[in-house]
Amino acid sequence: MRHLWSFLAGLVVAPITWVLITLGQDGSSHTINRWVEIGTFNTANLIEPAVYLGVAGILLGLLGTLRFSPLGPLVAGLLLVTTYVGMCVAPFAVRGRIPEDWKVLGDPLPLRLPVENGTLFLIGVLLLMATFSGQRWRRWPKPTPGRS
Q1: In a domain, 10, yes or no
Q2: Which residues contact 82 (CB under 8 A, 6 or more apart)?
Q3: Per residue of the chain (148 residues), what is the pLDDT tens digit?
Q4: Is 147 a member of any domain?
Q5: Helices (H) and strands (E) in the chain, counts
Q6: Is residue 142 part of a domain?
Q7: How far, in whole angstroms, is CA 110 from its chain's centroid?
Q8: DSSP string of 33-76, one letter each residue
């Protein structure tokens, strides 16, 4: 049962993380570019992108480090790596399948950004490496009767 829940977590975390990373990277990039244009800055403008990136990091950290089952990080890692590998094989086909007209709260959601700059590949490889940790494959020790 732990493998099923981990598998489902991997299926859910991968796309949610993709969206959160997109929102964080796009927000950070636009904010900093705006600062350069106007010649001044307000660091409070980076709070929203930082929250998106922080939540993505927490989700990935939980999936990658908790000892439930290695299936979750394996599935999420493969999903994230596959998009970038697809760019190596058929870049125009993969790029054409990634939606470009989605919006979140009225703001554009450039889902191609983390694929094209390699962020999803990096995160996918990290999750795949978490799969190969020897500790992930071991079961929790059973408690010894009479010991507390």
Answers
A1: yes
A2: 124
A3: 777 888 888 899 999 999 999 999 999 999 999 999 999 999 899 999 999 999 999 999 888 887 778 888 899 999 999 999 999 999 999 999 999 889 888 888 999 999 999 999 999 999 999 888 766 556 666 777 776 5
A4: no
A5: 7, 2
A6: no
A7: 15
A8: HHHHHHT---GGGGHHHHHHHHHHHHHHHHHHHSSS-THHHHHH
